[in-house]
Specification:
The chain is mostly helical and 137 residues long. It has a single domain, classed as 3-Layer(aba) Sandwich (Rossmann fold). The chain is 48% helix and 11% strand. It is built from 4 helices and 2 strands. The chain has a two-stranded parallel ribbon. The longest helix is centred in the middle third of the chain and has 22 residues. It is globular and about 50 Å long. It starts with a helix and ends with a helix.
């Protein structure tokens, strides 16, 4: 997202809003973003995890670098976004993970790295709440 888009979002959202740029695959960016949220608001009422990245490559064209980027954003980013948001969430807050349904739709030739996001997020959705409730996240 460029600076112009961030300014436009801030203007649209108005007073009392916060816009921030963060690369979810970069833990320092996440730390900075959540520190800013804590400073400005003190807590979160919910988190909507929606970051996603895909490269439109055929199976035989996927490189280790492109595969690592997809996994870094789509799974690592979702996991650590939630982990770092947890201290700011109050009792009754919500964590919503948006995993793509695109990998399950027909029509296009499937991209080999794309199913990693929905499947990894579904696993995260089903296993993580037990540890959150126990306070062991």
């Amino acid at each position: 997202m460029n600076e112009g888009s961030l300014r436009a979002a801030k203007e649209t959202l108005g007073a009392g809003s916060l816009v921030a740029r963060a690369d979810v695959s970069n833990l320092t960016d996440l730390d900075t973003m959540f520190a800013t949220i804590k400073r400005e608001f003190g807590h979160l009422d919910g988190v909507f995890v929606n970051a996603g990245y895909s490269e439109f490559l055929l199976f035989e064209e996927v490189t280790e670098q492109s595969f690592d980027k997809v996994i870094a954003v789509n799974f690592k980013g979702a996991y650590f976004t939630i982990q770092k948001a947890l201290p700011l969430l109050r009792q009754g807050s919500s964590v919503i993970i948006n995993a793509s349904v695109g990998a399950r739709k027909g029509g296009r030739r499937p991209r080999p790295s794309r199913p990693a996001r929905p499947r990894s997020c579904i696993s995260l959705e089903s296993s993580a709440p037990n540890s959150w409730a126990a306070g062991s996240a």
